[in-house]
What does this fold into?
Amino acid sequence: MIRRFLPGFKTCCLIVCFLYVTMAGSLFVKGLMTSMIDFQVPTQTLNSLHYYDALLWVYSHMIVLGLVIGLVGWFAKDSLLKKWMARLLLLVHIYYTYLDFRTSDSFLGNGLYKGAGSVIPGLVCLLVALLFFQLVLVGEPSPAKAASTSLQAT
It folds into this structure.
């Protein structure tokens, strides 16, 4: 019964794809360095070509990762692949959540990035981790069970 209200593998992956591509893409549209001003990054750091290069790589990678997760979610049919991808992506996003909260301006972080907005990346990663956690915990119904459930509902 609870399975009916939770998103499946494909939906989870497409949500992550949308979040990652939209979030990183919006930073490119606004301007990477301009976006970092909101987190009170020091001017000396903002003027660093090394910092710009690191941000360019990180947010390009975020877009690519989102697209890869979306593509896997869209085309994956094998239940074993889905199960292991959900487990792997859960572990990855637990680590990402730790990294994001570690530098946030909150009781969990060291305040490297300032302002209330500094917790948003951590919250997004936590949400994504929870999406994959529910897949690991509950899993997806097998095709036979899904078919029999839909027949019982009619």
